[in-house]
């Protein structure tokens, strides 16, 4: 069984989502199905079909979350250190063409959110950064062409 790397905060978010699905969403959809059944003919009952579809989505997501949490390899970023980029690192990059700086934390695939600077470990940029140190240059193929970045700083927080 393959472990899934994630930060402690990513693990907590998945746990919170699972708890909400089980304690709020699941009972609500069961109630909606019960109410829709009371309306009679189920073959033409849109509320019933929508509630059943929602129930299927919830149950699938619960199984998915339980699997991910069971296989989670929670990495405490606060105890990591060093000059090289590894999982959990916060990396400040400078675009070599424009000198524009951007900062990303390398996180698990389920916690990534590029708008908030959380870059998935599976992303091409993250894969290119792993093992590099401050001052190194990395090239990444993007849909807009090849981009070159210089690593300005690496920190673990």
Automatic annotation (TrEMBL):
<comment type="similarity">
    <text>Belongs to the GreA/GreB family.</text>
</comment>
<dbReference type="InterPro" id="IPR006359">
    <property type="entry name" value="Tscrpt_elong_fac_GreA"/>
</dbReference>
<dbReference type="InterPro" id="IPR028624">
    <property type="entry name" value="Tscrpt_elong_fac_GreA/B"/>
</dbReference>
<dbReference type="Pfam" id="PF01272">
    <property type="entry name" value="GreA_GreB"/>
</dbReference>
<protein>
    <recommendedName>
        <fullName>Transcription elongation factor GreA</fullName>
    </recommendedName>
</protein>
<dbReference type="InterPro" id="IPR036805">
    <property type="entry name" value="Tscrpt_elong_fac_GreA/B_N_sf"/>
</dbReference>
<dbReference type="Pfam" id="PF03449">
    <property type="entry name" value="GreA_GreB_N"/>
</dbReference>
<comment type="function">
    <text>Necessary for efficient RNA polymerase transcription elongation past template-encoded arresting sites. The arresting sites in DNA have the property of trapping a certain fraction of elongating RNA polymerases that pass through, resulting in locked ternary complexes. Cleavage of the nascent transcript by cleavage factors such as GreA or GreB allows the resumption of elongation from the new 3'terminus. GreA releases sequences of 2 to 3 nucleotides.</text>
</comment>
<dbReference type="InterPro" id="IPR001437">
    <property type="entry name" value="Tscrpt_elong_fac_GreA/B_C"/>
</dbReference>
<dbReference type="InterPro" id="IPR036953">
    <property type="entry name" value="GreA/GreB_C_sf"/>
</dbReference>
<keyword id="KW-0804">Transcription</keyword>
<dbReference type="InterPro" id="IPR023459">
    <property type="entry name" value="Tscrpt_elong_fac_GreA/B_fam"/>
</dbReference>
<keyword id="KW-0251">Elongation factor</keyword>
<keyword id="KW-0805">Transcription regulation</keyword>
<dbReference type="GO" id="GO:0003746">
    <property type="term" value="F:translation elongation factor activity"/>
</dbReference>
<feature type="domain" description="Transcription elongation factor GreA/GreB N-terminal">
    <location>
        <begin position="4"/>
        <end position="74"/>
    </location>
</feature>
<keyword id="KW-0238">DNA-binding</keyword>
<dbReference type="InterPro" id="IPR018151">
    <property type="entry name" value="TF_GreA/GreB_CS"/>
</dbReference>
<dbReference type="InterPro" id="IPR022691">
    <property type="entry name" value="Tscrpt_elong_fac_GreA/B_N"/>
</dbReference>
<keyword id="KW-0648">Protein biosynthesis</keyword>
<feature type="domain" description="Transcription elongation factor GreA/GreB C-terminal">
    <location>
        <begin position="82"/>
        <end position="156"/>
    </location>
</feature>
């Amino acid at each position: 069984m393959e472990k899934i790397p994630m930060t402690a905060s990513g693990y907590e978010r998945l746990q919170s989502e699972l708890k909400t699905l089980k304690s709020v969403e699941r009972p609500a959809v069961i109630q909606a199905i019960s109410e829709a059944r009371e309306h009679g003919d189920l073959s033409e009952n849109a509320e019933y079909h929508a509630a059943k579809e929602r129930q299927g989505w919830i149950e699938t997501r619960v199984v998915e979350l339980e699997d991910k949490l069971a296989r989670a390899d929670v990495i405490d970023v606060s105890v990591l250190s060093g000059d090289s980029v590894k999982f959990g690192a916060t990396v400040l990059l400078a675009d070599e063409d424009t000198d524009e700086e951007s900062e990303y934390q390398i996180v698990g695939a389920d916690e990534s959110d590029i708008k908030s600077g959380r870059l998935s470990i599976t992303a091409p940029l993250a894969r290119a950064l792993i093992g590099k140190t401050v001052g190194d240059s990395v090239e990444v193929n993007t849909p807009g062409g090849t981009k070159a970045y210089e690593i300005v700083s690496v920190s673990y927080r």
